[in-house]
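Progress note, sequence design subtask.
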């Protein structure tokens, strides 16, 4: 089959849309001779502090490390002890869960609210035990996962809230950005994310200065002061070149997210198909940045094939839930029916800020025209 004429995402096109600023910014770093923890990284950290409204931002190597180092720092600071339980969404990408198990913490899965795909606050309390120390919320597909119930539960039980904000850069809840809603947040700048670098990148944001300092030291061989290694750290730093790229891209993030919202609104108003369930618009528009536009259907594979025939590439986010992955063999017998049904039925349609109106029209038309023929 020939390449679909509407790719899921064309990163060449995205990158071109930031030229010539992107290439000049990269050339300036090349000429600067400063390639690690230089001026671009500190400039980005300051800009992201201002953008998210958090007190501290620490650039790290990627989104996975951001989450991993938050938990590791709390272990170092005595906030967590190995074997502690962390409430996590069952319905997420495995990169949300591995940082928990990597730190010898126990992930305790909670089913999603099927209207939002996000962790169901009503199911959380049943899973809280004397060993529970934190709730990890994932703003899946770019939709805010925070709500009053989660905040009240965390307060009542003295739990930390960690946000996995990898998919929701620029999103809001109750007048604040996601990434500033809990005690710490992990951000990913993987190229396909709403704020994407030209390689790996990540950040931790928090209002807690001690946590920020510990994360920064842990990402620099455990050293806060040159020559002194107080912790057994690792190497995970935001790269100077990637920071320069992010400094060019961050100022356009809000506009790009608004375009995503407009396209989502268009899909929601114009895709009509009784066998395709559309995602639910949150009460307030700012609570979604539409990293992914995910529809549900019992004929997922057929819909994907139908769209491909119409020249439209789609992806499945995600085909296998974490608890059914071979990597978590000891969890494979667990059953989370809502999560498992979602994984069997979801399909992501192309949605990105550079999608053309004609492409949007074709995606609407082809999705509406899908009929399941046995
Ligand atoms: C992308 C992603 C991550 C990991 O980010 P990387 O920068 O690729 O390590 C973690 N959680 C979620 C939900 C993601 O989408």
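Output:
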């Amino acid at each position: 089959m020939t390449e679909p004429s509407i790719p899921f995402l064309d990163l060449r096109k995205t990158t071109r849309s930031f030229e010539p600023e992107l290439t000049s910014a990269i050339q300036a770093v090349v000429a600067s001779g400063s390639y690690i923890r230089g001026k671009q990284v500190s400039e980005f950290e300051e800009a992201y502090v201002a953008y998210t409204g958090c007190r501290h931002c620490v650039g790290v190597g990627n989104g996975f490390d951001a989450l991993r180092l938050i938990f590791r720092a709390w272990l170092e600071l005595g906030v967590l002890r190995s074997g502690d339980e962390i409430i996590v969404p069952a319905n997420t990408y495995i990169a949300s869960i591995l940082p928990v198990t990597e730190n010898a913490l126990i992930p305790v899965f909670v089913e999603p609210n099927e209207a939002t795909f996000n962790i169901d606050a009503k199911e959380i309390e049943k899973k809280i035990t004397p060993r529970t120390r934190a709730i990890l919320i994932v703003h899946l597909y770019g939709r805010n996962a925070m709500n009053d119930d989660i905040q009240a539960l965390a307060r009542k039980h003295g739990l930390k809230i960690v946000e996995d904000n990898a998919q929701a850069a620029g999103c809001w809840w109750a007048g604040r950005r996601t990434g500033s809603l809990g005690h710490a947040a992990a951000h990913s700048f993987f190229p396909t994310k709403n704020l994407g670098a030209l390689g790996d990148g990540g950040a931790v944001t928090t209002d807690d200065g001690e946590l920020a300092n510990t994360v920064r030291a842990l990402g620099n061989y455990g050293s806060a002061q040159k020559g002194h290694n107080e912790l057994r750290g690792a190497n995970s730093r935001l790269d100077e070149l990637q920071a320069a790229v992010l400094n060019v891209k961050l100022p356009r993030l809000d506009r790009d997210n608004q375009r995503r919202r407009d396209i989502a609104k268009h899909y929601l108003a114009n895709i009509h198909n009784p066998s395709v369930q559309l995602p639910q618009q949150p009460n307030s528009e700012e609570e979604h940045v539409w990293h992914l536009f995910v529809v549900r259907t019992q004929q997922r594979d057929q819909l994907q094939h139908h769209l491909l025939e119409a020249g439209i590439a789609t992806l499945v986010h995600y085909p296998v839930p974490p608890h059914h992955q071979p990597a978590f063999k000891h969890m494979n017998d667990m059953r989370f029916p809502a999560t498992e049904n979602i994984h069997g039925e979801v399909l992501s349609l192309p949605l990105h800020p550079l999608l053309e109106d004609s492409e949007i029209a074709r995606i609407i038309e082809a999705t509406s025209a899908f009929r399941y023929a046995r």
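The first helix runs from residue 11 to 16. Work on this subtask will continue into the next period as scheduled.
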